[in-house]
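Supplementary Text 2. Reproducibility record for the structural model of the 116-residue chain.

All settings were left at their defaults, and a single model was retained for analysis rather than an ensemble. We include the record here because the model underlies the residue-level annotations in Supplementary Table 4.
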Amino acid sequence: MKFLFVLNDAPYGSERTYNGLRLAGALSKNVENEVRVFLLGDATVTAKSGQKVAEGFYNLSLMLNRVIRSNGQIGVCGSCMDARGIAATELADGAHRSSMDELGQWTQWADKVLVF
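Retained model, structure tokens:
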């Protein structure tokens, strides 16, 4: 089955992005599933490389890597990146600058779209 996760919230603060990535990681463990994650709005910061979080606190960059290692894809809204001053070179390995056009294509591709 093909799953698209659209994440909107900031990476740290509420737990929506965290919970969305937990589910994306769990679904990506099944080799029959394909998982794509699109980061929109404040969630774009989730893909910024070099995150240093407090000891014992979850690291969303590592959670993104779990999806990527399972052949998932991570798209990051380009205009949202621009609004937050994030360059493509600052994205975590495996994440790419994306667009609403690609989000539209991914939405048509997906069997299930989950929005957090």
